[in-house]
Each structure stands twice: as structure tokens, then as C-alpha cells.
Design a protein that fits this description.
mainly alpha; 83% helix
Length: 452
């Protein structure tokens, strides 16, 4: 091996370590969040199919409301990463302050209508009346914590943009342990508390969101933190706020289309009964666990790509994106094999209803097959967003989700009256389209020239 090759290998290994050091805390953070959702689903699942479906629908409403936070979070990561890469730490701290202002305002604006119209929002999914009652009770209490959740989310986004993945992990771990304990107490009525059922899950989440925001506030006021809320940075800066939202707005539109797409996909699945709805939400929980490496490497790619572009090192930014994608594909493919062969065991862990299990197993196996495609979609999407290229992932979503997934699912359901399994298979075409388009985009140069 020549000296040049040795140097190249050393650089590659150094980049791999850098990506991994950023990715693993993010993977663990998202993993703990998913674990809370998983435990929540397992607990509520013991109450029956209707409470499980109700909480699942309520969670979908929350995910839909989350889109307004995506605009702030995506813009925050990209802008903070650029400023940190350029060595402009005070400007990065100003972004943190403006983003928290905006997140708090948006959080209140989202929580109020959800609280007031929780029944109508759940009923819009076309589910049974008992499912509506369960979901609305859960959603109303969950809405109380949305403003606090928004503030913590932006804090975490800013710190990830600055390259500090571990502080959000520590706070998130604390919050998640609290959330699991509160779920048990409030759902089943332990320690002398009343058994609130599905509503207890919503209240536990709101209390956990509040704890997360309080802990984050103490961190950003602590000397030595990577980003701080300083008095001179607290002045409202509408120009900087518009800059953050301009970058993040396409990502929010993307998430809006995604949540509408999930809603339409769920409507198609609801043609096969309440058991199919319950099976769908079991699959969603498995999905949330399976794409954790994709989320982690997406966060790492966003941070490194943004910082390298801020420092003017364009080629290193592209190399980092590919390295993150490669590691993500390896890990998610391995997870896919485990999920595929353990599908029935996984389904039985959630629910004992044979019909729900029969509907859930093919969905879980379809998700397993899609893992490598999801890895590329998530990780390269994160790299593009870190560069500020937030519009292209939106176009990919429209073509993949609406063209491939919903188009195919609608045809097999309404035109050919085929089984539910064909509805699940539709998502393979979705991720194939999205991953191909993002791979092609990242090979090119247009994302390198996006102004942030």
C-alpha cells in the first residue's frame, strides 16, 4: 500500500469515527423516545383494541401538529451548523434564542385547537365511536404539554447543530424514564392514583414534556454549555427568525404532506376493519424502532454537512454524507433481517387478538424488507437538509408517497378489492422512489450551492 492510500484510509477512518460519534447519541436518544412509545403502546394494548386504536389515532394528530415545529427545527439545525462551522458562536446562540421564541409561540398556537377540538379531530379518521372517545380523551391531555415539548425539541435541534448530541441524550433519557413510570401509574392507577386508561398516557406525556423543557432551560443558562441563552442574544430579531423559517419551511411542508399521506393511507387501511387499524399502529411502533439508525445518521449528516459547508470544505461535506449513508444501510439492513424473522413474535408482544396479529405480521415484514431503502432516504435527506437544500426532499415525498404508495394502495383496494397485505406492500415503492431520487441528488452539485 502506498503512502497516499494509507493517508486516504486514515482520513476515511477518521471521518467514520466522527460520523459515528455524532450518530450514536442521536440513535440512543431517538431510541429512548421510541421505547417510550413502544411501552406506551404495550400498556394501552392491554386495555383492548379500541383504546389501542384510539391512542394511535390521537398520536397521528399530534404528529400532524408537529409539522409546524419542523420548520423551526430544520432551520435551526442548518443555521446553527453553518455558524458553528464558520466559528460564529454568538450568532449560533442568537439562533437558539430566536428559535425558542418561535417554538413557544407555535406550540401554543397548535395546542389550543387540539385541546378544543380533540373529539372532532379523532372522529375525522372515520373510526368507531368508542375509538373516538378513547382517542379524544388521550389527545386533550396530551395537548397540554405541546408548548413545552416544542421548546425542548428546538433546544435539542440547536445542540445537535452545534455538534453536541450527548446533552439532549442525557435530558431525553431522564424524561423518558419519568414518562414510562408515569404511564404505568396513570394508566393502571398505581400508588393510589386513579386508573385513567388511555387518558393517563396523554397526561404522563404532558408531564414528561414539561420536565424536559425545564431541564433544557437550566442547561442553556449554565456556564460552559456549548450554546447559551445570553442576555444580549434575547432581543427579538425578526430578520433572523425569517431566515430560520425560510430554510425550514419546505421541510415543514414536507412533513405536512407526509402526515396527510399517513391520514389517507390509514383511511385506505380502515376499509379492512378496526383490527387493521390496530395492526397499522403496531407496525408504526416497529417502524419507529427500525429506522433509529437512519434518524441518528441523518442527524449526524445534517450536523457535519452543515458545519463543513460553513467552514468552506465542500468535498469533505459530501464524503461525510456518503459515509453516514453507508453506515446507516449496514445497520438498518441487519435490523431488517431480525424484524422479518421475528415478525409474529413482535406482533404477539403487542396484542393477543388473532386477527390483529394476522394483519400486523405482513406489515412488519414489509417494513423489514424496506430497511435499506429507508436508510438511504433518511440519511441522505438529513444531509441535504443540513446543507439547506430542504425543497428537494419535499419533491421526493410527493412522488414517492403520493405517487407510489397511495396510488398503488388505492388501486389494489378500491379497483381490485385485494387483501390488506397489498396495501402494506405499497410502501416499498414509496421508499424505492425516494431513496433513488435523493441518491441522485446528493451525487450532484446543486445542494452545495444553497444559500443559508
Amino acid at each position: 500500500m502506498g503512502a497516499g492510500e494509507a493517508i486516504g484510509d486514515q482520513e476515511s477512518q477518521s471521518l467514520m469515527r466522527k460520523v459515528w460519534l455524532l450518530a450514536w447519541p442521536a440513535i440512543l436518544t431517538f431510541g429512548l423516545e421510541s421505547l417510550v412509545g413502544l411501552v406506551d403502546t404495550l400498556m394501552v394494548g392491554r386495555l383492548g383494541a379500541q383504546p389501542l386504536a384510539g391512542v394511535g389515532v390521537g398520536a397521528q394528530v399530534l404528529h400532524a401538529a408537529h409539522v409546524v415545529m419542523v420548520a423551526v427545527g430544520t432551520g435551526t439545525i442548518a443555521t446553527v451548523a453553518r455558524f458553528v462551522g464558520a466559528g460564529r458562536m454568538l450568532d449560533a446562540e442568537k439562533v437558539l434564542a430566536q428559535s425558542i421564541y418561535t417554538a413557544a409561540l407555535f406550540g401554543v398556537g397548535v395546542a389550543l385547537p387540539i385541546f378544543l377540538f380533540s373529539y372532532e379531530l379523532v372522529a375525522a379518521f372515520g373510526v368507531e365511536p368508542e375509538v373516538v372517545e378513547q382517542g379524544a380523551g388521550y389527545l386533550r391531555l396530551l395537548a397540554l404539554g405541546i408548548p413545552m415539548a416544542a421548546c425542548f425539541e428546538i433546544f435539542a435541534a440547536a445542540y445537535r447543530g452545534a455538534g453536541d448530541m450527548r446533552t439532549p441524550l442525557v435530558i431525553g433519557a431522564t424524561v423518558n424514564v419519568f414518562n414510562i413510570a408515569a404511564n404505568y401509574v396513570l394508566i393502571f392507577g398505581a400508588l393510589g392514583f386513579p386508573a385513567l386508561g388511555a387518558r393517563g398516557s396523554g397526561l404522563a406525556s404532558s408531564l414528561a414534556f414539561t420536565l424536559g423543557a425545564v431541564l433544557a432551560f437550566f442547561v442553556v443558562r449554565r456556564p460552559g454549555s456549548v450554546l447559551r441563552l445570553r442576555r444580549e442574544g434575547l432581543k427579538l430579531d425578526l430578520g433572523l427568525t425569517r431566515r430560520i423559517l425560510r430554510i425550514g419551511f419546505p421541510a415543514a411542508v414536507e412533513q405536512c404532506f407526509l402526515q396527510i399521506g399517513f391520514f389517507l393511507y390509514l383511511i385506505v387501511a380502515s376499509n379492512y376493519g378496526t383490527e387493521a387499524i390496530a395492526a397499522y399502529f403496531i407496525g408504526v411502533r416497529i417502524l419507529a424502532l427500525s429506522f433509529l439508525p437512519g434518524l441518528g445518521f441523518s442527524a449526524a449528516a445534517s450536523t457535519i454537512v452543515g458545519q463543513k459547508l460553513g467552514a468552506g470544505d465542500v468535498e469533505e461535506a459530501q464524503r461525510a454524507g456518503w459515509e453516514a449513508a453507508r453506515l446507516s444501510v449496514y445497520l438498518m439492513s441487519a435490523a431488517g433481517v431480525i424484524i422479518f424473522f421475528g415478525a409474529e413474535t413482535i406482533a404477539r408482544a403487542f396484542v393477543s387478538d388473532p386477527k390483529v396479529i394476522a394483519d400486523a405480521v405482513p406489515f412488519i415484514r414489509t417494513l423489514a424488507v424496506a430497511q435499506p431503502l429507508m436508510a438511504l432516504d433518511f440519511t441522505l435527506g438529513g444531509a441535504l437538509r443540513g446543507a439547506g437544500d430542504t425543497r428537494f426532499p419535499l419533491y421526493c415525498l410527493i412522488l414517492g408517497f403520493y405517487g407510489a404508495r397511495l396510488g398503488f394502495a388505492s388501486v389494489v383496494t378500491y379497483a381490485f378489492d385485494l387483501g390488506l397485505t397489498w396495501v402494506w406492500v405499497a410502501l416499498l415503492g414509496d421508499y424505492a422512489v425516494r431513496s433513488l431520487l435523493k441518491t441522485t441528488r446528493f451525487r450532484g452539485d446543486r445542494w452545495k450551492r444553497v444559500a443559508v
